[in-house]
Every structure is written in structure tokens, then in C-alpha cells.
Specification:
This protein has about 350 residues and is α+β, with helices and mostly antiparallel strands. The strands form 4 sheets. Strands 1, 4, 5, 6, 7, 12 and 13 form a 7-stranded antiparallel β-sheet that branches.
């Protein structure tokens, strides 16, 4: 890269601060003014600034172990948002949080811009890095081969939103109409076997496997085990070398893996930001199980300056799910994010 272009890219992508952390012990033990200090499984942070606007976040942790991570990284001319919905353990979501944005920064600096290829290659590097970790440690800790994470990322660069998704987390934009009404538009595709289109895709990729998707206890699952068809990690469903002992019945495959049944290839889309784009919600599946896209954007639109936890928490808390609300603002003027686990 030319020295002047590298200097510009470095300045734009130099991360000033990681704004959102999903674990209280990573946040210097503080609960923030919006948190319940007496409840170790509930905390929040009031509105703060990031490069393109402001944000707040809240975490409700239904279990002692939270397997999820989220982050907002910002530079002088860019904003990065990540939602990592882990399963089987926290190792994969933690690894993504520590490496994915750094890969995007490195690749953007090398190419002098952000592009779909930059984002795609960053996902690939993160997947390969985590599989290398699994390869080094699975003989000591076999269960790491069954740990994975969904991954939803948004990057704002030069008035363009780049989105990439693995799994069933979702990005939804709230668009303001001429009558000042808010309309939800889903930007990402869910990769979940509960969706007929996903089941058909899996069957077409595995025509000789009658058990590629199985209805188990009323829920469609890939190989009768997992609902999401794309992820970082879940190595035992991608490479035979990471096969688990049959005694681990929860992850037992009826026959040896002949080829990968999950993929780490993300769905990617690019969207130029428009004046009517008021905010974007990033959320893992737990939010969308209880709120429609339209209900979620109406909550944000009706409470534009409030801490998101005040309004989303009651809507979901009754169901006993882990979740994080990370509420950054504006797309055209603000950039708004909510991530729910």
C-alpha cells in the first residue's frame, strides 16, 4: 500500500476504545447508573458516545455462565459492532471478540478500504484461528470441539453499512416514513433449521443423507443436534478429526462425518445508508423469539433517548433468557444497535 494511503487507513481504523463488554468483571466491576447493584445477573450502562452517535447497553444473565459476547469498536471514521451468541461454552464467542475486529482492521489497512471481501476474509481467518485452537487443545479438553458461536457483525464505513452473519442473530433497520412512522426492514438472513428454505438448502447439499435435518421434540435440528446451519467453531460437525467420544450422548452422531454439515461462510450484504434509516437493531435469536421486527423498532422509535434496558428488559425477562441490550444510535445521523442473547 502507498504510505499516504496506509496512514489514512490506519488513522480511520485505529480503535480508540472498546465500548461494550458483556461481562461485569470486564467492566471494572461497575454496574453503571442503570444497573441493579444488588442483582449480579442484571446490569446496564447509561448512554455514552461512540464515533457515529451514542449507545447504551444492558445485560440480563439467566444462568451463572454467560456464553455470549458483544462489542462496539470505533475509530475516527468507522464503527464496528459485533454480536456473538455462543453455545456449548464461552470459548468461541470470546475468541471472536478478541480476534475478528482485529482481522477486519488488518485486512482493511492492507487493501486501503472496507469491502465484502475484507469482511469475508476476516471471518475465514477467525474460523481458522479457532479451529487451530481446537486442534491444539481438544485432546486435553475434548468438549472444545462442540463449542461454537453465531456471529453477527456490522461495519459502518464511508456512509455504507457492511453486514455479515452466521447463525440466527439478526439485524433490523428502523426506517422513518414521511408520516414519521417507523417501519422495520430485516437486513440479514437467519440460518436456522426451523426455516423451510434452510432445510431445503441443507437437503440439496446432502442428498445422500436422510438424517441431515431431523424433527426432534418438535424442533428441527441438523443431525438431530443443532439448530443453526452456520457458525464459528462446532468443529466436530465440520471435520472428522474432531469427532467426539460416543459416550458424550448430547453430541453423538449416528455415523462418522463424511463431509461438513455446518459452514462458516457468512451471508454478507452492503447497504448505503439513507436519510430515512434512523437506527439498526442487532440482536441474537432470544430477542426475536419474543418480539417481532416491528415491535422491536417501535420500542426504539418511541424511546429515542432512553437507556434501552428500561424498555426491552421487561419484554423478554419474563421468559428467563440470557440477553444483552447494546443500544447505539443513528445510521444517517445516529447508529443504533441492540444485541440480545
Amino acid at each position: 500500500m502507498w504510505p499516504w494511503l496506509e496512514k489514512i487507513a490506519s488513522a480511520c481504523w485505529d480503535r480508540v476504545r472498546r465500548y461494550s463488554l458483556t461481562r461485569r468483571d470486564e467492566d471494572n466491576g461497575g454496574s453503571g447508573s442503570g444497573a441493579d447493584a444488588d442483582d449480579l445477573l442484571l446490569w446496564s450502562r447509561d448512554i455514552a458516545r461512540h464515533a457515529a452517535g451514542d449507545f447504551s447497553f444492558a445485560v440480563v444473565q439467566a444462568n451463572e455462565v454467560l456464553e455470549d459476547h458483544s462489542q462496539v469498536d470505533t475509530g475516527a471514521a468507522s464503527t464496528f459492532v459485533g454480536v456473538y451468541d455462543g453455545h456449548g461454552g464461552a470459548e468461541a464467542s470470546r475468541f471472536i471478540s478478541n480476534h475478528l475486529s482485529a482481522h477486519i482492521v488488518r485486512l482493511a489497512q492492507e487493501s486501503g478500504t472496507v469491502s465484502e471481501d475484507v469482511v469475508r476474509n476476516a471471518f475465514s481467518a477467525t474460523e481458522q484461528g479457532f479451529l487451530s485452537l481446537v486442534r491444539r487443545t481438544h485432546l486435553i479438553k475434548p468438549s472444545i470441539a462442540a463449542i461454537g458461536s453465531c456471529c453477527l457483525v456490522g461495519v459502518i464505513w464511508r456512509k455504507t453499512l457492511y453486514l455479515a452473519n452466521l447463525g440466527d442473530s439478526r439485524a433490523v433497520v428502523g426506517c422513518v416514513t414521511g408520516s414519521n412512522k417507523i417501519v422495520a426492514e430485516q437486513l440479514t438472513r437467519d440460518h436456522n433449521a426451523s426455516i423451510e428454505e434452510v432445510r431445503q438448502e441443507l437437503r440439496s447439499l446432502h442428498p445422500d443423507d436422510s438424517q441431515i435435518v431431523v424433527l426432534k421434540n418438535g424442533v428441527w435440528r441438523i443431525k438431530g443436534i443443532i439448530q443453526v446451519s452456520r457458525s464459528i467453531g462446532d468443529a466436530y460437525l465440520k471435520k472428522q478429526e474432531f469427532a467426539l467420544d460416543p459416550s458424550i450422548t448430547r453430541f453423538h452422531l449416528s455415523e462418522p462425518l463424511r463431509r461438513p454439515v455446518l459452514t462458516s461462510e457468512p451471508s454478507i450484504c452492503t447497504r448505503p445508508l439513507r436519510p430515512q434509516d434512523s437506527f439498526v437493531i442487532f440482536a441474537s435469536d432470544g430477542l426475536w423469539e419474543h418480539l417481532t421486527n416491528q415491535q422491536a423498532v417501535e420500542i426504539v422509535h418511541s424511546n429515542p433517548r432512553e437507556v434501552c434496558s428500561h424498555y426491552f428488559t421487561p419484554s423478554v425477562l419474563a421468559f428467563g433468557d440470557d440477553f444483552v441490550l447494546l443500544f447505539c444510535r443513528s445510521v444517517s445521523r445516529f447508529f443504533s444497535v441492540v444485541d440480545k442473547f
